[in-house]
Design brief:
The complex is a heterodimer of chains A (about 200) and B (about 260). Chain A is α+β, with helices and mostly antiparallel strands. Chain A has six helices and nine strands; from the N terminus they run ααβββββααββββαα. In chain A, strand 6 and strand 7 form a beta hairpin. Chain B has about 260 residues and is of the alpha+beta class. In chain B, about 50% of the residues lie in helices and about 20% in strands. Chain B has helices at about 1-45, 50-65, 85-100, 105-130, 175-185, 190, 245-250, 255-260; strands at about 130-135, 135, 145, 155-165, 165-175, 200-205, 210-215, 220-225, 230-240. Classes of the chains: A alpha+beta (about 200), B alpha+beta (about 260).
Chain lengths: ~200, ~260
Amino acid sequence: MNKSIILIAILFITNACIAQDFSTNISTAKSSYKAGDLENAHFALQKAMQELDMIIGREVLKLLPAKMDSLTANTGNDNVSSNVGFVGATVNRSYGKFDKKAELSIISNSPMVAMLNSLFNSPLLAGMNNDPNTKTIKVQGYKARLERKNSNVDGKFNYEVQVPLGSALITFSLDETNDTEITTMMNTIPLSQIAKLIQ
Amino acid sequence: MKHLLLLGCLIAGLLIPGSVSAQKFLKKLKEKVENKVEQAVEKKTGTASENTSGVNNTSNTNSTTGTSGKPSNKAGGGLTNTEPPDVNIQITEAETAHNAKNYSDARFSLQQALMGIEIQLGRQILKSLPAEVAQVPVDTTQDKVMSTQWGWNNLSIQRVYRKDDKQLTITIGNNAAYAGVVNMYYANAGMIEASNDKQNFKQVRVKGNKAIIQYDDNKGYTLMVQLGQTSLIVWEGINFSTEQEMMSAANSFDVDGIKKLLGEQ
């Protein structure tokens, strides 16, 4: 109970600091632009954008379920990183411990992902990709790619689902599972709400 | 005797052209008769002659449609030039959206503001470039400032100087990825300074900045200078007679001024 209160307090303080930084950077950008210092204005706006990406990442984390089936979220390992550039901002959360784990990764505003997505969605590539371990599925109305991977444990497989959303990519992987279980778990992630935030 | 010879030549001169013109007359007469016969046949059968109709059809096709049957575009004035985004308005909109917790819109407005600044900065840099280099004047119609929505990383500024077959293109870019490629060359100095009979690639300095110059028979001279951490200037000279001429053209640019405007150290 105490730990939860401390965690909430830390999140609240971090968010408050980020919001303050956003306003400070916006003020710097405004004053630099007024003074004709374009380079400084640009730098301040970029920093504001990075902070915004961090805020968006934290908002996405709030939308994610605290538990997926029997797997509990490892909120202590939550990670949000911002990178104004080619890679984009990323959000990571993991579920479960030891033998069965799930990983959720969201990359947003990434030109690299935008290029990859255009390739994934091309019918030519889809036709060429006749891999028996890969299939196209729909999750909450969104087209997704389901991939089966070999597990360390004999006869069991790890699965991964990728949902491309413009310049964003949501990847969910689950150990030792089957396509039904991973699809059921994937359905507990509010994709449309996340899409609204990151697109 | 002489008189007789002259008379003979005169008669021959009169007769030869006469026979040629008679042949021409007969040929024309023959063609006219053939045409009349063809026209008479066409009137009776109601079909047009192949030659005339073929020519007419071709000219009609060319004027309205392309080879694939699609109409060719002859109207339309292109797109109108729009002003870059207003930075102040975009920043205010970003603040409003942020306060309303509408983060996606806030991000979009910030991107627009960044783009607005980049385009202004690009135009400032273009203004700072000389109007003439190595007696080659600027072709302002080819001035370009390109900014993508991905922040600083893809600002490109281009200017072309051109006179007859001589051309100098300067491209100023801000992209960590390709600026890094130049660094890679510096790191492999031993490799690129290989002693060939004809050296087409070497390291030089432009106003104290490390640079690489390259020569290719088809492309001419290419000179690259890395500015600070992420910026790069590339000069491409076509039909520059010597390396010295290319170097003095590059040295006539205010490299430090460009560096300062881009915020590079």
